[in-house]
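Structure in, sequence out. Go:
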């Protein structure tokens, strides 16, 4: 049912090759993962003990008893149903709550820093962060457009540090494109982060998708389907809008490339995704370099130093039979 999302980035050939993100560790930093541990669409992950760790940096509650947003986001990467296929259902997951879904204060950026440190400690290869910060409930804490330079906000600086530690940081561009703010939100301004904007199923720019500010850095870097995107909540397929849903498309896709090329660095994966995109080398501040072509990215890496590997055929059989 979500094949249009997979087909848009041409990842289906990689899935058919058995590249499902096996042995790649994705840290999902979000606002809670309500009932994810009870969803049949994520059961294969739990059954195989591929939820490596969970952590809540907001309060002492279980991450499965709070907000639903992280569960939706995670399903786009790991979910599997009869008619739904996630981007990286073979990956390992670290589920981390840094966001309080009922309020917005600057302290959540500091919680994100702790979450990124924890992700590094737990051996994450990829961070997906479908979060963004600009305005807060306490106006004195608000960011300005001038702050969106990659080096001012604590969360954007931390995202750069996370990349320098070896993790690919994939973040949503934010949903302020048609609001008073208009532009991307932190940490999407970090040059080292893979910032993902939104398009619809036809590849047209979503009006809500955050627009880049700095001319010297193309933001967003790429786009994927975040308008009319399909995710799985409580084991039922639902539709939603937001760059929160386009970001995990790219994070999950990146996991398939890491599986294919375990010797690749985060920079090489980043570059291959960008260079595979539909308008590269041309870009703009709305859709960046366009929509990635994962088969093309795979070919780019193959031309670099992709090594032959044996796929986990048993895992493939089990995933497709669930």
């Amino acid at each position: 049912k979500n094949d249009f999302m997979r087909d848009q980035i041409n990842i289906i050939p990689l899935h058919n090759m058995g590249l499902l993100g096996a042995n790649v560790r994705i840290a999902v930093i979000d606002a809670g993962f309500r009932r994810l541990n009870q969803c049949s669409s994520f059961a294969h992950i739990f059954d195989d003990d591929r939820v490596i760790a969970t952590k809540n940096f907001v309060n002492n509650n279980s991450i499965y008893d709070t907000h639903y947003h992280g569960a939706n986001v995670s399903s786009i990467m790991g979910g599997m149903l009869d008619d739904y296929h996630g981007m990286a259902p073979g990956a390992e997951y670290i589920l981390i709550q840094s966001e309080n879904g009922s309020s917005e204060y600057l302290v959540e950026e500091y919680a994100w820093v702790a979450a990124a440190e924890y992700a590094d400690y737990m051996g994450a290869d990829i961070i997906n962060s479908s979060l963004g910060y600009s305005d807060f409930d306490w106006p004195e804490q608000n960011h300005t457009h001038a702050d969106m330079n990659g080096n001012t906000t604590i969360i954007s600086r931390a995202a750069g540090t996370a990349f320098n530690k070896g993790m690919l940081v994939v973040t949503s561009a934010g949903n302020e494109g048609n609001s008073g703010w208009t532009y991307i939100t932190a940490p999407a301004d970090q040059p080292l982060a893979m910032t993902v904007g939104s398009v619809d199923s036809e590849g047209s720019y979503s009006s809500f998708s955050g627009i880049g500010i700095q001319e010297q850095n193309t933001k967003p870097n790429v786009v994927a389907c975040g308008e009319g995107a399909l995710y799985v909540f409580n084991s039922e397929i639902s539709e939603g809008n937001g760059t929160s849903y386009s970001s995990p498309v790219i994070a999950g896709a990146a996991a398939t490339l890491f599986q294919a090329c375990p010797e690749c660095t985060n920079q090489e994966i980043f570059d291959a995704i960008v260079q595979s995109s539909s308008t590269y080398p041309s870009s703009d501040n709305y859709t960046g370099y366009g929509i990635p072509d994962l088969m093309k990215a795979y070919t780019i890496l193959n031309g670099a130093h992709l090594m032959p590997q044996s796929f986990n055929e048993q895992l493939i059989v089990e995933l497709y039979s669930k």
